[in-house]
Amino acid sequence: MAKTASLKIDDKPFDLPIMTGSEGEQAIDVRRLRAESGYICFDQGYGNTGSCESNITYLDGDNGILRHRGYPIEQLAQHSDFVETAYLVIYGELPTEKQRNHFGTLLRKNAAIETQMQRIFEGFPDDAPPMAMLSSIVASLAAHYPELATNNFERDLQNFDLAAAMAISKIRTIGAMLYRYQNGMPYVHPKDIPFCENFLHMMFSEPYKDYVAEPEIAKALNLLLLLHADHEQNCSTSTVRMVGSSAANLFTSLSAGISALSGPLHGGANTAVMNMLQMIHDEGDDGTRFIEAAKSGSKSSRLMGFGHAVYRNFDPRAKIIGDACEKVLAKLGIDDPLLEIARNLEQAALKDDYFLSRKLYPNVDFYSGIIMRALGIPVNMFTVVFAIGRAPGWIANWREVASQPKGRIYRPRQIYSGPVKRDYTPMGDRG
Ligand code: ACO
Fold first, then answer.
1. Annotated catalytic, 365?
2. Does ligand 1 come within 6 angstroms of the Cβ of 339?
3. Domain check: are 58 and 123 in the same one?
4. In Å, how far from its chain's centre is CA 134?
5. Does 137 share its domain with 59?
6. Which ligand 1 atom sits closest to the C-alpha of 234?
7. Apex CA 253: angle with CA 260 and CA 188, to 5°?
8. How far is the CA of 389 from the centre of ligand 1 (A)?
9. pTM of the entire structure?
């Protein structure tokens, strides 16, 4: 017999179905509760609400587990690369050689930003926040490619393969171009080379001197992007789903996701970690004084890169990236004092009852900034790189929303706490 939960309101019982996910996680299905009882569920910020069924990513924050389409993140990090993982996240299976080649060709053929679109860059002040530029220019893709952005699920899904490849490839190109625009450097156009190498080429080539990425550098960027490819129903992904649920096209929905990611509580944390490490370094601290201050409970002195809204155990991505950080810096012969400070902070926090009792462990952002710095990526571009990495997850989630035969527009309810009904007063009577 199907399991149910029972809820009693004023002695009236309501039986609520229990749903079970493929990894055994359970939910109480309250979809009919309001119709049957007049009550809604209150869950500010949706912290305990399943907003969808999804078969893309499984995350168990209590046990530090992250899997895409069933594959553990540790195995993907070891054996796969960003483009292959992007294909997996979007299409649900690891690609065959033929599928991988086809996907790679689509990415390469759709990498360039046409001249008309390039003019959009010039409309921005050269000190515009990079994420503001990125979200605006990505939104403009819907205007430049209207045949891929019809705001009709059926038609947009028919062109999905092209739109998805275009989005992944162009977000990366736009990221590199806005960096060059802001630094007064001429644009470098994409070449027929692999995805990560191409990004670094467009970022760092000099006049008459093409930047050719060392294999270690391209590998490190691949790992970094791969580790960000998807992360279940985080703020930006839920935003993409919410916007997409209105039948908004892929590009418009991605632009909204980029805007959500730009906030310091979400994609901006990697920047905050670097600023913190730099400040500790500049003050001549080895981390010891900062750790003590971080225990004060004040939000302004938190140990950035520690703690996570869903991981109550280690963040599996942080383990991978922490190890990679050490190796990448060693291979590149970089001796970054900030890495030592980060290690000191981590070791001290992992022995300290304040952090242990609150289950605060390093998250992915704790080390990602140090890797980006080693690759030569400036701090104000960190969140842009995060967006390039997260694009596959957003795209996969948009596709899931667009493909649901019985999907409904995302439309939560609220508990109204404003004034009760009152009558309009003419201006002269308003005190
Ligand atoms: N440093 C010091 N104390 C902390 C930290 C921290 N980084 N994080 C949480 N705490 C403390 C809180 O003060 C609170 O203490 P209390 O119980 O004495 O009041 C306790 O730990 C629980 O904290 P919450 O605020 O409930 O944790 P929550 O789950 O709401 O927040 C968050 C998670 C926002 C990530 C928080 O840990 C934080 O601010 N971390 C630093 C910022 C950061 O690294 N963000 C990146 C997240 S990863 C990402 O978005 C890609």
1. yes
2. no
3. no
4. 14
5. no
6. 50
7. 85
8. 24
9. 0.94
Query: How many angstroms separate the alpha carbon of residue 262 from the centre of ligand 1?
Result: 18
d(CA 121, CA 137): 8
**Residue 379 CA, ligand 1 centroid: distance in Å:** 22
Indicate whether 213 and 293 sit together in one domain.
Answer: no
- Residue closest by Cα to atom 46 of ligand 1: 269
Structural domain of residue 233, as residue ranges?
73-247+380-403
Residue 66: which H helix or E strand, with range? Answer: strand 65-68
User: What secondary structure does DSSP assign to 82-116, as a single string?
Assistant: HHHHHHHHHHSSPPPHHHHHHHHHHHHHT----HH
How many other C-beta atoms can be found within 10 angstroms of the C-beta atom of residue 17? 14
- The answer to whether 231 is a known catalytic residue is no
Question: What separation in Å is there between the alpha carbon of 163 and the centre of ligand 1?
Answer: 37
- Both 142 and 229 in one domain: the answer is yes
303 close to ligand 1 (CB < 6 Angstrom) = yes
Using a 6 Å cutoff on CB, does residue 305 contact ligand 1?
Answer: yes
Give pLDDT tens digits along the chain (431 positions): 789 999 999 999 999 999 999 999 999 999 999 999 999 999 999 999 999 999 999 999 999 999 999 999 999 999 999 999 999 999 999 999 999 999 999 999 999 999 999 999 999 998 999 999 999 999 999 999 999 999 999 999 999 999 999 999 999 999 999 999 999 999 999 999 999 999 999 999 998 899 999 999 999 999 999 999 999 999 999 999 999 999 999 999 999 999 999 998 889 888 889 999 999 999 998 888 899 999 987 877 889 999 988 898 889 999 999 889 888 899 889 898 998 999 999 999 999 999 999 999 999 989 999 999 999 999 999 999 999 999 999 999 999 999 998 889 999 999 999 999 999 999 999 98
- Quick check: CB of 304 below 6 Å from ligand 1? yes
User: Which position among 60, 365, 423, 429 bears the catalytic label?
Assistant: 365
Closest CA to 44 of 381, 413, 345, 338: 413
Question: What is the CATH classification number for the domain harbouring 231?
Answer: 1.10.580.10
Ligand 1 and 269: CB distance under 6 A: yes
Same-domain pairing of 144 and 203: yes
- Within a domain: 254: no
Domain-located, residue 86: yes
Is-contact 336 374, C-beta < 8 A? yes
CATH code at position 57: 2.20.28
Whole-angstrom CA distances from 263 to 213, 259, 328, 353, 371 are 30, 7, 28, 30, 21
